Amino acid sequence: QEGIPLLRSQNIYSEGLILDDVAYISEEVDEQMSNSRIQEGDVLLNITGASIGRCFYVPKNFGRGNVNQHVCILRPIQSKITTEYLYSFLISGIGQNLIDACQNGANREGLNFQQLKSFVIPLPEISEQEEILKHIQTETQRIDSTVSKIEKEIELMNEYRTALISEAVTGKIKVT
Q1: Around 6, how many Cα atoms within 13 Å sit in the side-chain half-sphere?
Q2: Which fold has domain 4-122?
Q3: What is the pTM of this model?
């Protein structure tokens, strides 16, 4: 676990970067791979294999790193599109459908740079992008809260069911 992190497709998930099994490269290899260096705010998109379309962005203070050939670096022009907006678009149903429609290769799914360049992404002003992201965050929190409440209710119902069965089997309640 020494050297510079080399992010591979198995490290890129829509929920974040999973670094449990990250590979490392030497300074010398990093010099040879200068085109694959990541920067804060880059969106990393898996472009081959079963994980095609999974993406996340490089968070603040991540430090140095590179990607291998199965991960594409999308570097937003911050005056035109925010990192979070591009990421949110790519993981949306529309973004995933766009990725699915562009896959090529007889035996292996894959995206090439020409296909990525052809993506048409709605591009409102930065202020509107931020409003859209705020709305997504608010709705996601509301949905997560609702899911959490429902999960707790299911757990309580299962406990009640178990207690009811136990009482019925032990004769504590009369079943007619």
Answers
A1: 18
A2: Adenine-n6-DNA-methyltransferase TaqI; Chain A, domain 2 (3.90.220)
A3: 0.81
